[in-house]
Amino acid sequence: SMRKRLRRLCKCSHDHELLALIDVEGFDPNDIIVMVKDGKVKVLAEHEEERATARGKEYNYRNITKQISLPLGVREDEVTYSL
């Protein structure tokens, strides 16, 4: 569950502060862009699927856009992330 993953992540990152945990389940890592700019962390995830069905083509589109302000005193070059 998301809570268990968050607890595990917080335990292994005890030397660092966790700014955010964003659920990107269902997105390929290549679908995700993380940018740190202008004192903010921006996360963009976009995925599009096309399937052939008996009636024709079916499209599925999902996206996530999150923007998080960095806490005071945190430099942009100090920010790390993992998927």
UniProtKB/TrEMBL annotation:
The gene is Odf1. Keywords: Cell projection, Cilium, Developmental protein, Differentiation, Flagellum, Spermatogenesis. Residues 1-83 form the SHSP domain. PROSITE patterns: SHSP (PS01031). PANTHER family: OUTER DENSE FIBER PROTEIN 1. It is found in: Cell projection, Cilium, Flagellum; Cytoplasm, Cytoskeleton, Microtubule organizing center, Centrosome. Pfam families: HSP20. This is Outer dense fiber protein 1. Component of the outer dense fibers (ODF) of spermatozoa. ODF are filamentous structures located on the outside of the axoneme in the midpiece and principal piece of the mammalian sperm tail and may help to maintain the passive elastic structures and elastic recoil of the sperm tail. Belongs to the small heat shock protein (HSP20) family. GO terms for cellular component: centrosome; motile cilium; polymeric cytoskeletal fiber. It comes from Columbina picui. GO terms for biological process: cell differentiation; spermatogenesis. InterPro entries: A-crystallin/Hsp20_dom (IPR002068), HSP20-like_chaperone (IPR008978), ODFP (IPR037389).
